[in-house]
């Protein structure tokens, strides 16, 4: 990114400009100590005076009523709150009519902010008071009061907390009485400005100690800038939370959300007292100490995919470079570019009115369709389709521009969704809820309806980041997520009847990504970069999971690195200083995934023999068991020295019936209940009892024997033998009850078992012969 700064050579204001605010992406209002409120039209470069305030009113802060949510009463959405030095705040219409002036504080009202819903206003003043008002200007409560002036205030993302300054301290106070207040020392000088973003939940602060800092919502420091030459007078988040702007004396800086700086400009402005981002996040306006209003456009944004590099060179122009042959294409747009995404051989660009879809094979003929609402805040791509998020909803389109679906759920707030909280695959859309952070909504991509039986995916802890795998069948679709404890978990998105298990894959994971070509997952753990070559192993044979991992030291990526992309076998990581690091992982696991997905088992074995790596054999073993190919599983387990499993697989092969084999394969994967269910459904009650005896599930074995009125004596005999081996006495009441007066005859028990096995063999051979007769016919 860069910022292209333009100072419109019109000094409209005679005194310092104290505050600015956008109404649309092309219209701005500014207020100055010369008592004027001026409207700027950027399309025509015209300005007009809206109102001249009385001489005793010096404006300090301005905030427009939130537009996207205030649609029910449109007149209200066309107004702003202006705080002033005379202790009042004023509700002013777009046309400049002062609707209401309210006595609010003793001394100047230093800041005023609407909450995200537009249902409440918070004001802070020189008198150290923080007050909450209704949208009509009625006092609801005095939230807090202190002995020092409060210079800045911001609402929490859920509008239930307020962040304000207290000298060198920052304080987060919930609106609910008696709730815990968070307070910490943030700067070595007085804090002048704060901002709290609703999408990423991060806090910005700027102080007289000439530093700006980034914090999480628990007050933990994430970034601490170097001291500047002058105090930092303003900071502001971009609406989508990806960037922020910093203003100081003759200084405008554009930074990434992690703190490092994209661009530094030195406009001749004096101090920049207030910064406002346009609604679409493409422009910045600054209120300057020398009477100027500074405008800046965010350009030079860059997207990369395989051999293509796309750069936004001007507001309406992109340059595409193919690094293989150095071919350059220029893409011209009618309106300014707001968001873009390059992935899966397609470039999707949203402008203020339209969406363009380019194929990397042909840059000359984009597919163009009109947007329902201008400001797209997020574009996500999958192989078959892409997702657009704007203030009004979530829309799924095919790359041919056909509208597919629009998922909805109660209380949906699209303005706070980002790439960490929404995930898209070829058949599924996953969205993390903001109201309850432990819940993930799952939707069918083709219809936009809830997946399966409509059950939500819920976890015991709050979820931070979600990601769907991209390949394979819909039935096998998995979702990986990181929770508040930084545990990486995986579960199936299939939601029918049985509650799917959530299994922990790793701990202290900070960032994750699925490969776009096969279901390989990578993540940054504590001090290690880890690749899970076959995450499904946890469902098949958890014991060999460590053997399917690739790990390397990640200390070179410094603190708080982030995975940007995982394309083919290349992972791109952004370090905390903004530099990109590319890591190549072995290409062989991806080839193995390909062979297995097309059932080329012999080729898979040949590949593993060629590569001679334990990780490959371990992945193949798990893949073979998952796909019920026991011959390949046996070879793979032998190669990694799991002899007990080789013997178990051999014993499975000798089982007489298909159901028994299936049940024992499930037992190898640890799915005991499913194995038992298959046997019971096939009428193999004795075998179901026997697997419980083998696992020492004594309670369940007796329960089944009693329920089906068979083999009670067999269970009692094995129980007795077990107790004798360990020299123990029977203490279980149920066993004592059924063993009363019963004499165990092992000869009879063995005969019964033989009979059951013979019965199963006969049943299996008769079903096989009837199948053969059917085939002949």
Describe this protein with a few key phrases.
single chain; 777 residues; alpha+beta; 4-stranded antiparallel sheet; 55 strands; elongated; cytoskeleton; WD repeat; cytoplasm
Summary of the model, kept short:
By secondary structure, the chain is of the alpha+beta class. It is 20% helix and 39% strand.
What kind of oligomer do you see? single chain
- Kindly report how far apart the N and C termini lie: 71 Å
Shape designation: elongated
Structural class: alpha+beta
Mean pLDDT: 89
Largest sheet: 4 strands, antiparallel
How many E-type strands?
55
Q: Give the low-pLDDT segments.
A: 69-76
WD repeats: 102-134, 184-216
Signal peptide: 1-25
Subunit structure: Component of the IFT complex B, at least composed of IFT20, IFT22, IFT25, IFT27, IFT46, IFT52, TRAF3IP1/IFT54, IFT57, IFT74, IFT80, IFT81, and IFT88. Interacts with IFT88. Interacts with IFT57 and IFT70B.
Main location: cytoplasm
Can you walk through the features of this model?
With 777 residues, this protein is of the alpha+beta class. Strands 1-28-27-26 form a four-stranded antiparallel beta sheet, with no helix packed on it. Helix 3 packs parallel to helix 5. The longest helix is centred in the C-terminal third of the chain and has 31 residues, at 746-776. The N and C termini lie far apart (71 Å). 41% of the residues are buried.
């Amino acid at each position: 990114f860069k910022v292209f700064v333009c100072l419109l050579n019109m000094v409209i204001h005679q005194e310092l400009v104290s505050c600015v605010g956008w109404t649309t992406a092309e219209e701005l209002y500014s207020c100055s100590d010369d008592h004027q409120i001026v409207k700027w039209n950027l399309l025509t470069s015209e300005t007009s005076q809206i109102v001249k305030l009385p001489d005793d009113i010096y404006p300090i802060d301005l905030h427009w009523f939130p537009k996207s949510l205030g649609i029910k009463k449109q007149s209200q959405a066309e107004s702003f709150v202006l705080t002033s030095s005379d202790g009042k705040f004023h509700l002013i219409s777009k046309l400049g009519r002062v609707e209401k002036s309210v006595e609010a504080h003793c001394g100047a009202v230093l800041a005023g902010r609407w909450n995200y819903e537009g249902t409440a206003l918070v004001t802070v003043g020189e008198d150290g008071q923080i007050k909450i008002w209704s949208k009509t200007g009625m006092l609801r409560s005095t939230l807090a009061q202190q002995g020092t002036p409060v210079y800045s205030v911001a609402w929490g993302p859920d509008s239930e907390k307020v962040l304000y300054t207290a000298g060198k301290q920052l304080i987060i106070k919930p609106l609910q009485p008696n709730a815990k207040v968070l307070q910490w020392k943030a700067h070595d000088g007085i804090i002048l400005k704060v901002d709290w973003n609703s999408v990423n939940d991060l806090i910005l602060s700027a102080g007289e100690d000439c530093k700006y800092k980034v914090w999480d919502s628990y007050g933990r420091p994430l970034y601490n800038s170097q001291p500047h030459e002058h105090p930092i007078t303003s900071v502001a988040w971009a609406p989508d939370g990806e960037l922020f702007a910093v203003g100081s004396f003759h200084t405008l800086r554009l930074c990434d959300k992690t703190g490092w700086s994209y661009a530094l400009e030195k406009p001749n402005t004096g101090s920049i007292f207030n910064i406002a981002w346009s609604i679409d996040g493409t422009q910045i306006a600054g209120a300057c100490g020398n009477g100027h209003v500074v405008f800046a456009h965010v350009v030079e944004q860059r997207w990369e995919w395989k051999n293509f590099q796309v750069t936004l060179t001007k507001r309406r122009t992109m340059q595409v470079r193919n690094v293989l042959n150095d071919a350059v294409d220029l893409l011209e747009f009618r309106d300014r570019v707001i968001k873009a995404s390059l992935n899966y051989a397609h470039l999707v660009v949203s402008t203020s009115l339209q969406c363009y879809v380019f194929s990397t094979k042909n840059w000359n003929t984009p597919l163009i369709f009109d947007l329902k609402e201008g400001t797209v805040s997020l574009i996500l791509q999958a192989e078959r389709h892409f997702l657009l998020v704007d203030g009004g909803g979530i829309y799924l389109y095919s790359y041919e521009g056909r509208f597919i679906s629009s998922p909805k759920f109660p209380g949906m707030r699209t303005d706070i969704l980002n790439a960490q909280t929404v995930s898209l695959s070829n058949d599924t859309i996953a969205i993390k809820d903001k109201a309850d952070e432990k819940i993930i909504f799952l939707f069918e991509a083709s219809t936009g309806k809830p997946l399966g039986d409509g059950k939500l995916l819920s976890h015991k802890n709050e979820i931070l980041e979600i990601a769907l795998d991209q390949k394979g069948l819909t039935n096998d679709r998995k979702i990986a997520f990181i929770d508040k404890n930084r545990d990486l978990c995986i579960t199936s998105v299939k939601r029918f009847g049985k509650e799917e298990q959530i299994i922990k894959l790793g701990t202290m994971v900070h960032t994750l990504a699925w490969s776009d070509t096969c279901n390989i997952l990578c993540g940054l753990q504590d001090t290690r970069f880890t690749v899970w070559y076959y995450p499904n192993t946890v469902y098949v044979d958890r014991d060999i999971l460590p053997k399917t991992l690739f790990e390397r030291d990640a200390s070179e990526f410094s603190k708080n690195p982030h995975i940007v992309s995982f394309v083919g076998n290349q992972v791109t990581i952004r370090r905390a200083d903004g530099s990109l690091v590319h890591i190549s992982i072995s290409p062989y696991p991806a080839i193995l995934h390909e062979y297995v997905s097309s059932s080329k088992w012999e080729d898979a074995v040949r590949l593993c023999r060629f590569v001679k790596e334990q990780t490959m054999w371990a992945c193949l073993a798990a893949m073979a068991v998952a796909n019920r190919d026991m011959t390949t599983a046996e070879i793979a387990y032998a190669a990694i020295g799991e002899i007990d499993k080789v013997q178990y697989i051999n014993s499975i092969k000798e089982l007489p019936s298909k159901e028994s084999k299936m049940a024992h394969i499930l037992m190898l994967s640890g799915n005991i209940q499913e194995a038992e269910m298959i046997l019971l459904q096939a009428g193999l009650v004795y075998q179901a009892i026997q697997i419980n005896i083998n696992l020492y599930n004594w309670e369940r074995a007796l329960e089944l024997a009693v329920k089906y009125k068979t083999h009670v004596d067999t269970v009692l005999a094995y129980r007795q033998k077990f107790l004798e081996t360990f020299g123990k006495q029977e203490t279980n009441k149920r066993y004592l009850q059924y063993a009363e007066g019963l004499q165990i005859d092992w000869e009879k028990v063995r005969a019964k078992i033989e009979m059951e096995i013979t019965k199963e063999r006969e049943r299996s051979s008769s079903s096989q012969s009837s199948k053969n007769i059917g085939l002949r016919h």
